[in-house]
Known about the structure:
By secondary structure, the chain is of the alpha/beta class. The chain has helices at residues 20-42, 46-78, 84-130, 135-140, 143-153, 155-185, 187-193, 201-234, 236-241, 245-298, 303-345, 406-413, 436-440, 457-461, 470-479, 506-520, 536-550, 585-591, 594-602, and strands spanning 368-377, 380-390, 395-399, 421-426, 429-430, 443-447, 524-528, 554-558, 570-575, 578-583, 603-604, 608-609.
Amino acid sequence: MQPTDGAVLPRKKNSETGNPSLRAAQSRNDRVIARWLWDSFVRQRVKFILLALALMVVEALTLGVISSLVRPMFDDVLIASERSGIVFIALAMAAMLIGRGLAQFTHTSLMAWQGERATADLQAMLHGHLISLDQGFFKHHPPGVLIERVRGDSAALRQVFTSLITGVGRDGASVIVLFGVALWTDWQWTLVALIGLPLLGLPLLALQRLIRRRSSEARLAAADSSNRLDEGFHGIATLQLTGSEAREVRRFAKVVDNFARKTTRAKMGKAAVPAVMDVGAAIGFGLVLIVGGMQIIEGSRTVGQFMSFFAALGFMFDPLRKLVSLTAQWQHILASLERTHGLLQIRAHVENPPPPHLAPPARDKASVELRNVQFAYDSEPVLQDLSFFAPAGKTTAIVGPSGAGKTTVFGLLTRLVDVTGGAVMIGGQDVRRMDLATLRGLFAVVSQDTALFDETIRDNILLGAPDASDAQLAAALRDAHVDQFLPNLPDGVDTLAGPRGSSLSGGQRQRVAIARALLRNAPILLLDEATSALDSRSETLVQDALDRLSEGRTTLVIAHRLSTVRNADQIVVMDRGRVVEQGDHASLLAKGGVYAQLHALQFDDREGERKV
């Protein structure tokens, strides 16, 4: 069940990059990425892009006019000592420079705006896609890596607008205009100046392949860095309590050192492109200087012609260098967009079934049944031929040693994961034929690791029932005993819960989760070790709230402490993915089997209750 990495074309070893079939496959993949880029982000912004391109042409034309004015400035004004032309030349050049600045400011701002909006759209698209995937995907993709995929890789789309499109439009127009000025000035000098460029084709092609590979390696290293930070900050208490700060610092330093090394290699490849271009420019400039200088000395060319040509050529080589550098930039962008596009191609193993969907059962018919259920993570079996029935409106406890598969049962009921064999039934109906949102609406869940967000307590409670009235909220606060600690908080129910509920104690977090479950008013209640980490006073309050919550609902309880489930209507004992015993507390004790052994480990007549 392990999901793929998400790349459309797998990354090959360096030694394989010369394989023609691999190059052809890479070329096809690049076309797929380019088409996706156009359809999803560029097409709807064409009118803004065209306006920006028009302004880029204006900017390029100003450069052409400026280089053209150099010839009369030297020949007709400076050398001929024509004073009257000085003011005209000065005003014309000033006007061109002002126009160039305004055009550049406008198109740069316009493309930056569109780049930011497109990047925001892509990040929202990635986030929406990722949270739709099932738990099997997140088992193999840590949060830190996914954060880097959403935030880091998607930033390449911004460069498409601010670097790629802008560069092609602005520098391309400049090269065309200035090439025309150079040809108009002297076509022979122009050919001499460009004679060295064809020699650079093979080196530039090799550099592009190197940049693509190095950029992919750098993105992977960036994901490792983000994941190391995420794990370190989440486990900060453990690091400090175990005295492992220095060890973690060394581990992170190793990761960021690798990231710095990979990123430096990628940037060195990109920096080599304009350096190679400068070799061609050096050849061209040197030859033109020799040829043109000899012609001026001979009197067949004027100083004004030479200076105008050199102005056009000088202006042209800079955008030409940038244009060639854009090929390296494109390879860098493709390396990130390839990973991003691949991530969007991953499909959830758990999907909404096609209509018609089965109707959800009524509250009094919401029984739960597992029939010969098989389940495995990758090749590791978790549940094997698991079967039991939980009657509607009754409390069923699921107990057993760690690793028995108890929590996996809850994931199967809510279709966070799907069975690999057998069936899960709610009200006698296969959950795989129900609408996914409707199915999950049948459940309220309170677990040991309560998921609270860095929002107000009110927002956390309303998470499952955003349309609840103030009266319903007040009732939930009262029944879950949340109202007992609200007066001690600075803003009452509008106090921020903090990251992962860190502003609240464990018992307070549990009561907030119970209030959330109360507001959902779902027919089936799932309790996963809901009181295991609480002190005696908090446990008493939380247990009282849970008792109120479970009234009239089909309740399934996972518990290690058998004292919390002795009053359940039935107890299902699991071991190694199977049901090994089933019955009430008294009958299971009398049987003397697995449950009785677990009970004996946790209770002693002389010492009272103690948890193993």
